[in-house]
Design goal:
By secondary structure, this protein is α/β, with parallel strands linked by helices. The chain is 39% helix and 17% strand.
Length: 341
């Protein structure tokens, strides 16, 4: 039985060469899989056997420098790893990278520009195949100059100049889907509680709401569109106006707004969905699945965004050079929208 070597003394290429009785150069050619090198099949076999038996590990960084790339994909994010549901982007990217033989290197910068520059620099030094650059909410983003030194894809954000490939949620489709869930249950006085925050989600979900009404032949009533701070207090504060407008159903900008709406409606002695139906957005499960009744909502496709970003980076999905790829936001039907008619 071979004595185990201390971790501080890894096997060297010279030791492999000595075990086989060949030169270090020959071992290097085999390790780097140089097909055109004049090395016999038997010698290659003996070198590979020695590598396995001795536990030799090639210097990955040196190999990357020779080949010009590595089996690493970088992901640089502003706060994605610490948000309750957006970390699914990392899971999606990691699973898809692993499926194709790559490892994901993740840097969570918390919006610190200096940390961001250092992270990108480190990844470039390690010859990553490319970098996914992601934000925790869908928005326009300033592209760090260093990103343009490598292959990159924007995830959950986009360049305001439209000069970069990006994958983002389809906010308009999500708004149509959320409103359609209520239309399908026979509602015609459908209120929309939108956010006060200027963002693609504000504009896109409103467009989707209006498109769903138009498709159903329901006239758009601007009095049914209310702006609120996108949290529980914002939803709670909208209840008097919603009741004053005679709405029978409400589409909320996000699940936190819906949670506040639940509280306000109950305070007025109203039941969900019997008196007023409610649909949220985000599918933030810590909220949506545990409200009573459980909240019908539309999911942000974070996992799918991560998958799509890796596929674009690897060239598995062909798109135009500066394409903006929109990923579908699927419905999650629970109980708060009521029964389809």
């Amino acid at each position: 039985m071979t004595e185990q070597r201390p971790a501080s003394n890894p096997v060297t290429m010279r030791e492999v060469a000595a075990a086989v009785g060949v030169s270090v150069a020959t071992v290097s050619l085999v390790v780097n899989n140089k097909k055109d090198a004049r090395i016999g099949a038997d010698t290659r076999r003996r070198v590979m056997e020695a590598i396995r038996e001795l536990g030799y590990r090639p210097n990955a960084l040196a190999k990357n420098l020779v080949q010009g790339s590595s089996r690493f994909i970088g992901l640089v994010a502003d706060a994605i790893a610490t948000t309750p549901f957006a970390g699914q982007i990392i899971s999606g990217a990691q699973d898809e990278a692993w499926k194709h033989g790559f490892v994901l290197l993740v840097a969570n910068t918390e919006g610190n520009e200096s940390a961001e520059r250092e992270a990108i620099s480190m990844m470039l030094e390690h010859k990553v195949l490319g970098i996914l650059y992601s934000t925790w909410f869908h928005r326009a983003a300033d592209i760090p100059a260093a990103l343009r030194e490598t292959n990159f894809v924007l995830v959950n954000c986009f360049s305001p100049d439209g000069d970069s490939r990006a994958v983002v949620p389809d906010e308009e489709q999500g708004g149509r889907t959320a409103t359609g869930m209520l239309v399908d249950r026979g509602h015609r006085r459908i209120a929309f509680v939108n956010t006060t925050t200027a963002a693609p989600a504000r504009d896109g979900r409103l467009k989707g709401y209006r498109a769903a009404l138009e498709a159903a032949g329901i006239p758009f009533d601007p009095d049914l569109v209310l702006d609120a701070i996108p949290n529980q207090e914002g939803g709670y504060g909208c209840v008097p106006d919603i009741l004053r407008q005679g709405a029978t159903a409400v589409f909320c900008h996000n699940d936190r707004v819906a949670m506040g709406l639940y509280d306000g409606l109950r305070q007025h002695g109203l039941a969900i969905p019997d008196d007023i139906a409610v649909v949220g957005f985000d599918n933030q499960e810590v909220i949506a699945a545990h409200l009573r009744p459980p909240l019908s909502t539309v999911a942000l496709p974070h996992y799918e965004l991560g998958v799509a970003g890796v596929r674009l980076l690897l060239g598995l999905d062909r798109v135009e050079e500066h394409a903006l790829v929109r990923i579908e936001c699927p419905p999650v039907e629970r109980d708060s929208a009521g029964v389809r008619r």
